[in-house]
């Protein structure tokens, strides 16, 4: 049953919203964990991202350096000339790249020098080394932060680009060592002026006839690329913080929407009282929260059903006890001093007390049926038990009693409880039959189950009453009931059968009688 006012209840709950309560909410804890997880993720990702960029930049720098080394070695060995070197560079020039700016070469000093510029020969003297380096530097334009530096006769000669960082000034120890370098070398060195900057370099001596003519150096300062990487990382951090803030805001509202059933559950629980168990939570969608709402509603259905059953039980029990009390009070109030009337009154009172005693005993029995020690199981011979049931039933009332069939075999049951259940069925049959009707008792073992049944040719039971009559205090709306019983007999039969792990079946038709059967497993798992 759904509560039509659950939205109003939830709204009134929202009206009492207080900020201190926010910190105890489930979505706040979810958001805190979400923030912690994202912070850890970014805390690990940003350094890894920065290091990955550093590695890629350094790999590109190494590639550029060794590209320059390869070109210079091929030029020095004569495998390519300056024109080929320039053409190769222009082939790798992309239209989107800025066109390289070449310095304007100075006019040649004489015709011989112009011829050398036109058809450069490998240097064999210091003068030729100068012309070789000059022509080379005019053609080869290095990438950003790469410096091509040349030395002749142990002195700095020219560089490309012309403007060099402070670490490449001629008077620095690094430059003085490069000027007299006689063997190829690859290495790196920390900057003298910035401890965060590293200088990667490759040195190539230029020799002729075993004599050092000059030195060619390609060097790279990583400070520029590192600055670009740090700038990119800074942009990523800024964007990530903005995205994180927006994500947390959206997560807050999303978590509140997802956890809405919990607030509805709280509001519903607060609205439940001891007299109103009709409140229910609306179930929306699927998943854990929908299952929680469904489970809660199912629990409330069971509680409401139990509450109604207990209320009806109290009302019915009160009614059943009130009748004999009223009878006894009336007879006692009207009792005279005559001995015969006193004896009659005493018999009526004792009869009503006996009825009340049986009623209380039935209630106690139904209460015990829910306990684990309700049954006292033993191995019983089914044939002997059936004959005993038939003998005991014949004394209940004058009827045409018949024994239909007898099961043969041994079963594990509580003998006294089975006798009680079948006797209740037989007593119930006598109340719905006439003296000339037939009541049949029988038993059989079928498919690992034992059946005990009582069949009569009485009035029968209406279809709509066949399930209800097993409830406590229930009576059939039609039939020739002759006793003023409390309506607990069939409830006791059902409780005994279910305690054995079995059931009670009923087949009946108005005017054709009824058949009640207690069906039990041969060895109950209890």
Structure description:
- With 526 residues, the chain is of the alpha+beta class.
- It has 3 domains: 48-229, no CATH class; 288-368, Orthogonal Bundle (Helix Hairpins), CATH 1.10.287.130; 378-521, Heat Shock Protein 90 (2-Layer Sandwich), CATH 3.30.565.
- 51% of the residues lie in helices and 16% in strands.
- It contains 14 helices and 12 strands.
- It has helices at residues 6-15, 19-22, 26-77, 82-91, 111-118, 126-139, 173-179, 223-258, 260-271, 288-334, 339-368, 382-393, 415-431, 489-499; strands at residues 146-152, 155-160, 185-190, 198-208, 211-221, 378-381, 400-403, 410-413, 438-446, 449-456, 503-509, 513-521.
- Strands 2-1-5-4-3 form a 5-stranded antiparallel sheet.
- Helix 3 (26-77) runs antiparallel to helix 8.
Which features would summarize this protein structure in a list?
14 helices; single chain; 5-stranded antiparallel sheet; disordered N terminus; 526 residues; 51% helix; Heat Shock Protein 90; rod-shaped; alpha+beta; Helix Hairpins; 3 domains
């Amino acid at each position: 049953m759904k509560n039509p006012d659950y939205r109003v209840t939830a709204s009134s709950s929202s009206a009492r919203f207080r900020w201190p309560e926010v910190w105890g909410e489930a979505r706040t804890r979810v958001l805190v964990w979400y923030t912690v997880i994202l912070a850890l993720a970014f805390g690990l990702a940003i350094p890894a991202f920065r290091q990955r960029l550093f590695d890629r930049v350094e790999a590109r720098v190494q590639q550029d350096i060794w590209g320059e080394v390869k070109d210079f070695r091929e030029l020095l060995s004569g495998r390519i000339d300056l024109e080929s070197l320039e053409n190769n560079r222009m082939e790798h020039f992309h239209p989107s790249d800025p066109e390289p700016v070449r310095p304007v070469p100075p006019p040649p000093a004489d015709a011989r020098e112009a011829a050398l510029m036109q058809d450069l020969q490998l240097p064999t003297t210091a003068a030729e080394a100068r012309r070789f380096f000059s022509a080379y530097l005019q053609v080869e334009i290095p990438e950003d932060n790469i410096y091509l530096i040349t030395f002749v006769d142990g002195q700095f000669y020219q560089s490309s680009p012309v403007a060099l960082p402070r670490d490449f000034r001629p008077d620095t120890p690094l430059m003085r060592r490069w000027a007299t370098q006689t063997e190829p070398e690859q290495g790196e060195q920390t900057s003298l002026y910035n401890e965060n900057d590293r200088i990667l370099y490759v040195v190539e001596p230029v020799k002729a006839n075993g004599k050092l003519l000059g030195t060619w150096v390609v060097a790279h300062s990583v400070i520029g690329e590192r600055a670009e990487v740090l700038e990119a990382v800074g942009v990523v951090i800024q964007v990530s913080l903005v995205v994180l803030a927006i994500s947390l805001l959206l997560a807050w509202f999303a978590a509140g929407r997802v956890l809405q059933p919990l607030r509805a559950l709280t509001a519903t629980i607060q609205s439940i009282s001891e007299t109103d168990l009709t409140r229910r939570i609306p179930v929306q969608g699927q998943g854990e929260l929908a299952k929680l709402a469904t489970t809660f509603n199912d629990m409330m259905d069971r509680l409401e059903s139990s509450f109604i059953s207990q209320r009806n039980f109290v009302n019915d029990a009160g009614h059943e006890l009130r009748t004999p009390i009223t009878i006894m009070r009336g007879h006692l109030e009207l009792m005279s001093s005559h001995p015969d009337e006193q004896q009659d009154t005493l018999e009526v009172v004792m009869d009503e007390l006996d009825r009340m005693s049986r009623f209380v005993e039935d209630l106690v029995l139904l209460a015990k049926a829910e306990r684990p020690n309700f049954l006292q199981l033993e191995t019983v011979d089914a044939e002997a038990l059936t004959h005993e049931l038939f003998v005991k039933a014949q004394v209940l009332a004058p009827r045409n009693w018949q024994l239909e069939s007898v099961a043969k075999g041994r079963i594990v049951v509580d003998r006294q409880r089975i006798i009680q259940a079948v006797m209740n069925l037989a007593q119930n049959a006598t109340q719905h039959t006439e003296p000339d009707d037939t009541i049949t008792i029988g038993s059989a073992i079928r498919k690992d189950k034992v059946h005990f049944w009582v069949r009569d040719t009485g009035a029968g039971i209406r279809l709509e009453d066949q399930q209800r009559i097993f409830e406590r205090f229930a009576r059939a709306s039609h039939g020739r009931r002759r006793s003023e019983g409390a309506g607990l007999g069939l409830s006791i039969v059902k409780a005994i059968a279910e305690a054995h792990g079995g059931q009670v079946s009923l087949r009946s038709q108005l005017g054709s009688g009824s058949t009640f059967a207690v069906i039990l497993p041969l060895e109950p798992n209890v």
